[in-house]
Structures are given as C-alpha cells and as structure tokens.
Amino acid sequence: MIMQAAMGWCYSITSTKDSPKLVIAMDLVNHWGLPLLAALTVASISLIGAFTLWIRPARLRVVVPVLVSLAVGVLLGDAFLHLIPEAVESIGSVFQVCLYVLAGMVMFFGVEKVVRWRHRHDVFDAAAADGGGDAMARMNLVGDAIHNFIDGVLIAGSFSVDPVVGVTTTLALIAHEIPQEIGDVGALIHGGYSPRRAVFLNFLCALTVIAGVLFTLLIAEAANALMPYLLPVSAGGFIYIAAADFIPSLHSHRGFRHDSLQVATVAMGVLCMLGITVFEQHSPPSVPDQRALATFARATISLNHASHRGLSPHNPVDAPPSTTISCVHSRCPPQD
Questions:
Q1: Where is this region: Disordered (predicted)?
Q2: Domain spans, the chain
Q3: Banded pLDDT at 175 (limits 50, 70, 90)
C-alpha cells in the first residue's frame, strides 16, 4: 500500500493538496521517465554486435555467414512462435491474421523493389548495379525498425499498468533482442556494410523503440488500436526477409561443413526463440503476458487522465459525469 502510494498510483485529494509538486514529479517519472529509460535500455542492447569491431577481417568472413544463419532462425522463430500467436490472441481470427501476414510480405516485397530501384539509379558502378546485398541489408533495417517500434508500444503499455509490470516486460524484450541484434549486425556486414557502420545503423534502427514509447504515451488509444495489426504485418516482413533475402544468400557458401553449420545455427535461432516463448508462458504471475498488455493499458487510460488533473480515482464525484475512473490495482486501499 505504501509503495503504491509512493509510486504515484494511488492518489487522494489530501495528498494532492499537501504535496502537489511531489505528486506531479512522481507522475512525470512514472508516466514518462521510466518508459523512456526502459526504451533506451532496450535500444542499447543493439550495441552488443560491437564485438565484430575487434574481429580480424579474415575471421569475420567466416563468422558472418553464421550470424546470418542465426538471424534467419531468430526471424522465423519470432514470426511463427511469437508475433503470429500474439496476433491471433488479440484479433481472434486466424484467417484475418493470415491476411495481414500476407499483406506484410507483399508490402516488404514492394519496399524492396523501391530500394533496389533507387540503388540502380544512385550507383554508377556496373558491377554493383544489382545491389542485392545492399538491398538485403536495407530491408533488414526496415523490418528491425518496425519490430522495435512495436517493442516501444509494449513498453509504454506495460508501464501504464504498473512499474513492476514495465520492468519485467523490459527484461523479456531484452531476452528477445540479444540473439536478434547479434544476427542483425552480421546480416548488415554480409550486405556490404563495414562493422562500424553496421553497428551504428543497427543502433539507429533500435532507437525506434523510443518512437514507439512516445507514440503510445501521446496517443494511447490509437496505439492500442493499431497494435494487433502491426504484429502480423511485422511477422510477414520477418518471414519475407528471412526467406527471400537471407536464405538465398547463404547458398553461396557451399560445402558439407558450411551447410551443416548453417542448418545447426538456424535451428539454434529457432530454439532460442522457442525457449523464450515457453519461459514467458510458464512465468510466475509477476511476469506479464505481453498479449494482455494492450488490454491492461486501455483499462488505465482513464486513471492516467484523472491523475494528471489531480482527481482521485476512488472518488467518482470529483470526476466529470461522463468519465468512469477505476483503479486496476487490487491492492489499492479503499477510500471512505
């Protein structure tokens, strides 16, 4: 009870009059500071690929195909084991989810056509005019940016429920990001970028998680409405990038040793995402189910609006007649 009051979740008219500056400060920290700090933490995980800066070029040429194979497994595992099941849970129709997944694949196909068209008109080297590797890397950046934006929506929604829910959601997202970011850096290097440039661009794409947080905090209702549809579209993009760009590029490295290593690494990426998904499903109640975060966030929008105006969520008399304010915390103390 004391911790909830200190964190600013349970407001009363008396506490607002006694220390309005403290209440406003705690509300700003809870509503803006904690989600943005969590988003910055998730974005910084993209720098994990910086280890490639200290690998010799000859050794890097051997490591990069392995990292691309890991990216294939992670992308496919994330799409089929994480994003699509969440979309089915949110939308409730497998047929609609399949349509949105196909729409995502077609959309990314069109984006890649635009990327390749621009590349053919921008470069003058006839040998590089195809731009296959560069287009593959750019497509990976587009898909990663959309996925990170969705992560930002999840982070903001979870902190709207409770700081503890926000922290556990952030930890779950970090577990997802570690293998994916390593594979993304390898894919960018495989696409022709230098290791330093690949790490930098990967970090820039990771910053879209902050855009997702800001979008959700500023336009919460619109973010919650878009969330179920962004999931299958992102899944379609991941499937397209893995199947159309990454997998064909792996066939250039032939030989039983290379093929066996690539298959094993793809399987390891899928198993990694499977393990994370199983962990989330069998976590204790304190670890949030991300598929319910959007619903939880919608339930707290009215509470957040009330706290910003200094109203008490337990005193409906203080609220406008058309506003229904309810506290989602079962341990909030009853008000007389």
A1: 307-336
A2: 39-284
A3: confident
